[in-house]
Amino acid sequence: MAKRQPPAKAELVVITGMSGSGKGSVSRALEDLGYYSVDNLPIALIPKFAELTRDSATVRCAALVVDVREGESLMSFPAMYARIRRSIPTKLVFLEASDATLVRRFSETRRPHPLGANHSVQRSIQSERRKLAPIRALADIIVDTSKFNVHDLRQTIVEKFRGEREESRIVVYVTSFGYRHGVPADSDLVFDVRFLPNPNYIPEFKKLTGRNPQVARYIRSFPQTTEFIQRISDLLIYLLPHYIREGKSYLTIAFGCTGGHHRSVMIAEQINKGLSQAGYRTKINHRDIAKPV
């Protein structure tokens, strides 16, 4: 899986809020946007973590989860947070939900509330709200997840933090392969181009690849090739914005022919070129091009 590239400017995001409100989902969404995410970091270590984020040459942005699992040390967080904000750009995201929603979620997951099993879930939720009230007052972003499913919450976070960053756009991996060597396991979309005439049966093309201008010209000379490239390009240009809105950070598109030397290579090159010209970040890989014909 490809790692997203983090923003160039150092940034720290603190995720907190009610138990069962979706903090883990937010942490994973930020991780997919390039944030280095840590769950349940002891409060005493947060200043050091912020310092490392600020000074690191590789981890330029980070997210961490803070909640009632910290116990009594949670009381020291507001003052600590004020000091951290003076040293690194920081945002506090507070997640909440209605009592009824939280009770239902705990019932569905059958997990105990972090404040213990000595009280009912309802009483634990009320106690947690009181403990978190001083932190909620500091929040830059408050999200009520009562009516959200996991996908809704992810989309909300992606929209708030992605903005117009080039780094957060989808990366498209275009791969060619040969069916005789198996379909790439990481493929999201697979297209079979074995319906196109095979240059392998032409002696002067046999030891060449689809990168060769003569081979490419031969494959492109058939009307079905031109139509296929156009139809697949139109399909991908339609699909990619929808994948982006769903928060997908990368997409692997695989084109297969028999050996992975000619047709799939040429088609992958053309599709990669078209997507790049359309403004998408692409990476191309010809998996089987060096394998025996």
Describe the structure.
The protein is an alpha/beta fold and 293 residues long. Helices cover 39% and strands 18% of the residues. The chain has 9 helices and 9 strands. The protein has helices spanning 23-32, 46-55, 77-85, 99-109, 121-136, 150-162, 213-220, 223-245, 263-277, and strands at residues 11-17, 36-39, 61-65, 90-96, 141-144, 171-178, 189-192, 250-257, 281-286. Strands 2-3-1-4-5 form a 5-stranded parallel β-sheet, with helices on both faces. It has a 4-stranded parallel β-sheet with strand order 7-8-6-9, covered by helices on one side. β2, α2 (46-55) and β3 (61-65) form a beta-alpha-beta unit. α4 (99-109) packs across α5. The protein is elongated. Residues 1-8 and 164-168 have low confidence and may be disordered.
List key phrases describing it:
293 residues, alpha/beta, 5-stranded parallel sheet, 4-stranded parallel sheet
Instruction: Encode the helix/strand succession as letters.
Output: EHEHEHEHHEHEEHHEHE
The secondary structure category is: alpha/beta
> Strand content of the residues, in percent?
15-25%
Number of strand segments: 9
Shape: elongated
Model regions low in confidence, pLDDT < 50 over at least 5 residues: 1-8, 164-168
Overall pLDDT metric: 88
For the biggest β-sheet, the strand order reads 2-3-1-4-5
Tell me roughly what share of residues is in helical segments: 25-40%
Query: In terms of quaternary structure, what is this?
Result: single chain
